[in-house]
Amino acid sequence: QVHLVESGGGTVQAGGSLKLTCAASGLTLSRDTMAWFRPAPGTEREFVGAIWRGGINTYYADSVKGRFTISRDSAKRTMYLQMNGLKPEDTAVYYCAADQRLILSSMSTASQYDYWGQGTQVTVSS
């Protein structure tokens, strides 16, 4: 059985940093693509970024590119989201997602992911 558990959320001032963690069980990270999503107006969950199976290639939404970095530790079965230069508009619940059968063109589509965590709240004050 697959479980994803996010942690690391909190409240920071604009310009600050947070590092989110997604602990995975029941997955072989080398075979799974893992991603971060957050709710956004007009969409249920907005793509933030992903690390492709194999753990080498990462992809980011334009809104976070250059500020957020995704990494993972396969031995610990953990994915990370380092968020720097946070802005008030980054305030959201951040969800971790994983899928083994994803194709590249579907990477940013929330409905294509089979497994989800419960989310962790990030609040950025101005």
Describe this structure as you would to a colleague.
The chain has strands spanning 3-7, 10-13, 18-25, 33-40, 43-51, 58-60, 68-73, 78-83, 92-99, 115-116, 120-125. The protein is globular. The mean pLDDT is 95. The N and C termini lie far apart (41 Å). It has 126 residues and is an all-beta fold.
List the helices and strands and how they pair.
Layout: E1 3-7, E2 10-13, E3 18-25, E4 33-40, E5 43-51, E6 58-60, E7 68-73, E8 78-83, E9 92-99, E10 115-116, E11 120-125
Parallel strand pairs: 2-11
Antiparallel strand pairs: 1-3, 3-8, 4-5, 4-9, 5-6, 7-8, 9-10, 9-11
List keywords for this structure.
mainly beta; seven-stranded mixed beta sheet; four-stranded antiparallel beta sheet; 52% strand; globular; 126 residues
